[in-house]
Task: inverse folding
């Protein structure tokens, strides 16, 4: 079902013609999938993580239209309702949809992380954002110290950014 959700998200972005959004969420999904499996998430938590990774920036097109930009706080504000609407036809139990929407609504909030799925989503999104934003080594080191917790996420961060 993950493949169907991912395809649907690619098609969901069609009207917005933002290739970056598609490429971005595919990269975040791949890192999240990889970290989750390496950290031995249980099957349900892994599924929720992957759904949230696919949907994490669902609010970007709306935010660009409504606010002229898609800063993280706006994505967190607008995203959960969009996730619930997007996932309603996939015959998922309510708990999965609620948790995925919660993660999307917090994927730029680095404190009060309440689960390994949440932690991994933060790490996967940063791995991609750090590269796409050409962050300084100092900024990446700060994120490593303050945010990264998983062995796999730290390993990937060190390797990708040559820390």
Result:
């Amino acid at each position: 079902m993950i493949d169907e959700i991912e395809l649907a998200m690619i098609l969901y972005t069609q009207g917005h013609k933002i290739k970056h959004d598609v490429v971005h969420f595919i990269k975040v999904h791949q890192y999240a999938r990889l970290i989750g499996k390496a950290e031995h998430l249980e099957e349900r938590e892994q599924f929720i993580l992957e759904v949230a990774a696919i949907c994490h920036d669902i609010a970007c097109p709306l935010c660009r239209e409504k606010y002229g930009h898609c800063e993280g706080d706006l994505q967190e504000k607008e995203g959960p309702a969009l996730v619930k609407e997007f996932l309603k036809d996939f015959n998922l139990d309510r708990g999965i949809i609620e948790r995925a929407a919660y993660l999307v609504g917090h994927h730029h909030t680095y404190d009060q992380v309440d689960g390994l799925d949440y932690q991994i989503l933060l790490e996967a999104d940063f791995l991609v954002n750090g590269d796409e934003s050409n962050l300084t080594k100092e900024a990446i080191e700060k994120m490593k110290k303050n945010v990264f917790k998983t062995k796999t996420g730290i390993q990937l961060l060190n390797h990708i950014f040559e820390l």
About this structure: DSSP finds nine helices and no strands in the chain. The first helix runs from residue 2 to 12.
